[in-house]
Each structure stands twice: as structure tokens, then as C-alpha cells.
């Protein structure tokens, strides 16, 4: 199974809402990632987890809160977002090491109203 | 910035033609990867080339890497309409697992 799944596919939320994005992989990968992608732009790294511990936070605002409950799951908790946070949020996973490809999920299209 | 820069930004060709996309970067790398993204979807890994490699092939794809010029190229031969997508190079450097993506090339293959 080389699939990374993400739920939900689409999410519309108000600026006062709290919601969560979920990501799951069963490839035994010990590195998992969150990216944000605006239209016609490349993906931008937000967070990296290795061995279920946060290893990279690219100065992401605290209204985004990642969580890695186990080696297969990655969550992104959202609270008090701004309209400019509307984007495609991509999850990825990979083996640990310097030369491994990342496997991406289909993304969650988030709209903040 | 370690970000790769692709050119051209957009490329439109006819089915059966070859497509070449280039990526330049500024720092030393461990490897360089190419990904494809269909509109609004997740990215699909195409090929990874390590810093000590010069050329790799995978099916209709050929990737070259010139570390002295800090550049890479992706060649898609005998293109198909299904190859229509955005193509990104991604730079991996240092001891972490961070990938930095270039701005991408939008390839349109006309039937």
C-alpha cells in the first residue's frame, strides 16, 4: 500500500471555528510532513515529524497546531484561521534518511470565510 | 534561498513532441527530485537523482544533473495529453528531511 489518505477532501470553516485535518499512511514511514499550497504556487513546508516527534516548524502561526498520535497518523488542528489561510493542505510521508522520495496525499482544500 | 527555479514557467507542445524543463538552484544538495501535480491534486514523485549522479532514466523520463552549474533538466519524450500537469523540482540538502520546491513548470500537451 503506497497510499497516503487525507480527510476531509474539502473544508469550509469560519474564522471562529475549530477543525482538524487528518492524514494516514500505512507504509511504515517514520517521517511525516504538512505542506501548504496556494493556487499556482509551489508547496511550502509547514511541519516535519520524525519518529512521531516534531522536528521542523517553519515558523508557522500558532493557529495551526500539528499532532502525531502514532506512526501512521498525522493531524493538523485549526483554530481562529484567517481568510488568507485558504489553501490546499498536503500531507506527505517518507522513509527516514537523506535520499528518499516523499509520498503525498490528495490534499484538503480549505476555505476560510 | 535554496529554492529551485524552473524554466520555462509554462510550456505548450503537441502530442508526440518532447518536453524539456530546467531547474536551477543556489546551494549544495544531497539530491534533487522531480514531482508532477495534476490540477488541484497531490504531488506524484517522478524521479530522484543524487548529487553524485549525472543522469537517470525512468520510462519516458530522463533527468540530468550538473552540480557544477547547479542545474537539472527533466526530459519527457513522446509526450501524451495525459502528461499535462505542473512539474516541480525539489531540493534536498542538509541533514534533515526538508524538501524545498521550485516554482514549477506548467506543461500543456495538446492532442
- Count of DSSP E strands of chain A? 11
- The percentage of residues in β strands of chain A lies in over 45%
pLDDT averaged over residues of chain A: 94
End-to-end span of chain A in angstroms?
Answer: 36 Å
Biggest sheet architecture of chain A:
7 strands, mixed
Extended strand count of chain B: 11
Order of helices and strands of chain B: EEEEEEEEEEE
The backbone outline of chain B, from C-alpha atoms, is: globular
The total of helices of chain A stands at 0
Taken as a percent bin, the fraction of beta residues of chain B is over 45%
Structure description:
The complex is a heterodimer of chains A (about 110) and B (about 110). Chain A has about 110 residues and is mainly beta. Chain A contains no helices and eleven strands. In chain A, strands 2, 4, 5, 6, 9, 10 and 11 form a seven-stranded mixed sheet that branches. In chain A, strand 5 (about 45-50) and strand 6 (about 55) form a beta hairpin. Chain A is globular, with a radius of gyration of 13 Å. The model of chain A has no long low-confidence stretch (mean pLDDT about 95). By secondary structure, chain B is mainly β. In chain B, about 0% of the residues lie in helices and about 55% in strands. Chain B has no helices and eleven strands. Chain B has strands at about 5, 10-15, 20-25, 30-35, 45-50, 55-60, 60-65, 70-75, 85-90, 100, 105-110. In chain B, strands 2, 4, 5, 9, 10 and 11 form a six-stranded mixed sheet that branches. Chain B has a five-stranded antiparallel sheet with strand order 1-3-8-7-6, with no helix packed on it. In chain B, strand 9 (about 85-90) and strand 10 form a beta hairpin. Chain B is globular. At the A-B interface, strand 5, strand 9 and strand 10 of A face strand 4, strand 5 and strand 10 of B.
Amino acid at each position: 500500500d503506497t497510499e497516503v489518505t487525507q480527510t476531509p477532501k474539502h473544508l469550509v470553516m469560519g474564522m471562529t471555528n475549530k477543525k482538524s485535518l487528518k492524514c494516514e499512511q500505512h507504509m511504515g514511514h517514520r517521517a511525516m510532513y504538512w505542506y501548504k499550497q496556494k493556487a499556482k504556487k509551489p508547496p511550502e513546508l509547514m511541519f516535519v515529524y520524525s519518529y512521531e516527534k516534531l522536528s521542523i516548524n517553519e515558523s508557522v502561526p500558532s493557529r495551526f497546531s500539528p499532532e502525531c498520535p502514532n506512526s501512521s497518523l498525522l493531524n493538523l488542528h485549526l483554530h481562529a484561521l484567517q481568510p488568507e489561510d485558504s489553501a490546499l493542505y498536503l500531507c506527505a510521508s517518507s522513509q527516514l534518511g537523506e535520499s528518499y522520495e516523499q509520498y503525498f496525499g490528495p490534499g484538503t482544500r480549505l476555505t476560510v470565510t | 534561498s535554496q529554492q529551485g527555479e524552473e524554466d520555462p514557467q509554462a510550456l505548450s507542445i503537441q502530442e508526440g513532441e518532447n518536453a524539456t524543463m530546467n531547474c536551477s538552484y543556489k546551494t549544495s544538495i544531497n539530491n534533487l527530485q522531480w514531482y508532477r501535480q495534476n490540477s488541484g491534486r497531490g504531488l506524484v514523485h517522478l524521479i530522484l537523482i543524487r548529487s553524485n549522479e549525472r543522469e537517470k532514466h525512468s520510462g519516458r523520463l530522463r533527468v540530468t544533473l550538473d552540480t557544477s552549474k547547479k542545474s537539472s533538466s527533466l526530459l519527457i519524450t513522446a509526450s501524451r495529453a495525459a502528461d499535462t500537469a505542473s512539474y516541480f523540482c525539489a531540493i534536498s540538502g542538509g541533514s534533515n528531511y526538508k524538501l524545498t520546491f521550485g516554482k514549477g513548470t506548467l506543461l500543456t500537451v495538446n492532442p
